[in-house]
Amino acid sequence: MSEVKLTQLGIKDSRDLLNKKEISATELTNAYIQNIEESSKLNAFIETTFDKALMQASKADKIIGTDSQKSLCGIPLGIKDLFCCKNVKTQAASDILENFIPPYESTVTQKLWNEQAIMLGKLNMDEFAMGSSNETSTYGPVINPWKSTGSHDSLTPGGSSGGSSAAVAANLCTGATGTDTGGSIRQPASFTGTVGLKPTYGRCSRWGIIAFASSFDQAGPITKNVTDSAIMLKAMSGFDPLDSTSAKIDVPDYEQELGKDIKGLRVGLAKEYSLQNGDSEANRKLEEAIKIFKNMGAEIVEVSLPHTEFALPTYYVLAPAEASSNLARYDGVRYGHRAKLDTNDSILELYEKTRSEGFGTEVKRRILIGTYVLSSGYYDAYYKRAQKVRSLIKNDFDEVFKKVDIILTPTTPTSAFPLGSKGTQDPVEMYMNDIFTVPANLAGLPAISLPVGLDELGLPLGVQLIGNNWQEPLLLNTAFNLENTLAFENNPKKWWA
After folding, report:
1. What pLDDT does residue 387 have?
2. Which residue of 17, 186, 349, 400 could cross-link 449, Cys pair, CB 3.0 to 4.6 Å?
């Protein structure tokens, strides 16, 4: 099999070939290494671990076909730079963590290595996962492998997991880890024609993942298809005593749940999730998904989530508040960047200079917002009120899930936009990209984005399915049925090599 075709395979298809001994883990890993080396223009990988990957592949080749083989044996993955990996530089794409090399492994990545997956390297991202376009990274922006028809503009791959989505779409790894605080897995998946899954809050451990907003952050996979998401999620999930928010709940075999009939499934359409442009291609693709569900015997139910309109402002009060607290630890004393001081500078001046030099503009903005809403005199007016609205949003979902099994929405208002075209003057314009994804994070619900087709510019569009707490098996099976009917098989043309 040619290397070009080999790297177009996903996790399941690669695993099947490995099990049949038609390819070796070393051959598969080398094919991805070659693709990565030819794809520097995309700026997806910021740290490669090829020597480690080839050692893991060699070991996998000896294990495949034996009783010791695990679910991801010989499968090459990319890891978002937010996950601490032992003895591998991890910076959260920020200067403040300059040359930080963790002496420990995050729980999620350790689970992947326990399943004998192969690590190709660390993937680019928005600084501290704060961004929707992957333009806030200290390493520079990631370039979406997709191009608009008739245009040479560089497009955003989405954020913050833009390196992960671009790497999967460009066939630089079989799958990748991401994190989702307000849509940072699902939005980039929509922009790159990949599948992005945010699990229920507490399904995957947060231990060893550099924190942005602790009550929102959740790890999840970005993959080429729904089956691969099911395989990765099982490996990533499970209770962790090191994480106080980790749920002590059984992990199903998600892959075994796929392919079940969804006749009678109640699919909710929330009027608050409508796209303003009724003639847009995104609306037409959503209508196509609705028609597919009807043809499969699902029942379409009109529902209302009345507090959805307050989701975005609520999120942009609460998430920065948590960020300002979490990022207070970066002071230049224990690790990371430390500013050069004058002879008479105080410890306070060390903090001020280090944080001024180390943090980027967007991170500073959110720290300032968060500190403001938590300050004396404003706590009740902003933070406390936002917490109350968050409860109302969660209650809306609880009521709707008494009537439906799944909620269908767009993932993003538009397809991928050119880099530099949003947020330079008005950050709120950039924040609006999260309008359909944020509510699931506020409620802690599982949600998945999958490609539904191409728009008039030849760019991928995604639809989102939101499930009730711990209903990932139903969510994945619903997405699997929709995916099979849609049969989205488009790939970006390889202009970057």
Report:
1. 97
2. 186
In angstroms, what CA-CA distances link 103 with 51, 110, 124, 178, 203? 19, 13, 21, 21, 25
Structural domains in the chain, CATH included, are 3-262 (3.90.1300.10)
Q: Which residue has the tokens 């960047």?
A: 337
- The owner of tokens 């307000």 is 182
Both tokens of 435, joined, read: 């309008």
Q: In what order do the strands lie in the sheet with 76-80?
A: 45-48, 118-123, 76-80, 175-180, 218-223, 195-198, 447-454, 460-467, 406-410, 266-270, 299-303
Catalytic annotation, pick one of 39, 184, 229, 449: 184
pTM score > 0.70 for this model?
Answer: yes
> Is 160 annotated in the active site?
yes
User: How many other C-beta atoms are found inside a 10 Å radius of the C-beta of residue 99?
Assistant: 10
pLDDT tens readout for residues 406-425? 999 999 999 999 999 886 56
Cβ-in-10-Å burial (0-12, 13-18, 19+) of 20 comes to exposed
Mean pLDDT of 238-251: 97
CB 200 within 8 A of CB 236: no
Q: What is each CA distance from 133 to 93, 173, 214, 272, 422, in whole angstroms?
A: 13, 21, 21, 24, 9
Amino acid at 1: M
Cα separation values, 4 from 8, 172, 341, Å: 7, 11, 52
Nearest to 203 by CA among 111, 127, 315, 123: 111
